[in-house]
Write the structure tokens for this entry.
Amino acid sequence: MGDIAAMKKFDAIVFDMDGVIFDSERATMYCWIELAEKYGIEGIEKPYLECTGTNDAKTREIMMNAYGPDFPYDEYAKEASKMYHEKYDGGRLPMKSGVFEILDFLKNNGKKIALASSTRRQTVVNQLRDAKILDYFDEIVTGDMVSKSKPEPDIFLLACEKIGVAPENAYAIEDSFNGIRAAHRGGLRPIMVPDLLPADDEMKQLSEAVLDSLNDVIIYFSQN
């Protein structure tokens, strides 16, 4: 797909993972909803959506602010994580449409490919390996490698540094508001492929493009 001569000019692409490569934001939310029903936690969807794109520490902070200092977050998070891994480990995590196509397209056109995920490294590596796409990535930067979570740009800047590409020559593919904010602050060219939340006016302003799927991103890159 796409004539290389007509392609947009860029050197690299930095992918988020959850909600972009895997349908894992939705999978995790279902685990939390199940947990909320079990323990009678009210209105879990709203704070959960605020947590998308952030690391463990930021997620904990958001949940504690939502439910108060007595909320047993660590206990619940451990149970939700166990539930998630039981359901989806071993290559059972659903992938988003167009993942293999866009990775092949970028490799065939000589682009560097990095990953910037707020999830901890071991989980990221396991999931990419189970899905048989680990070898596509030149570098993987994870939430435990930076001190500041998205929406701060640190994870994207480190990814660009590791692949030796200036941020302005890299696209970032994100689904979350915090991820788009982080990519924009880092000087990358953000493309939003919305997952759980549609793009609002802020996201449309911060993104170079808002597209429906990774296949649409291929088409976008193929046009000068």
About this structure: The longest strand covers residues 112-117. Residues 71 and 152 are 26 Å apart (CA to CA).
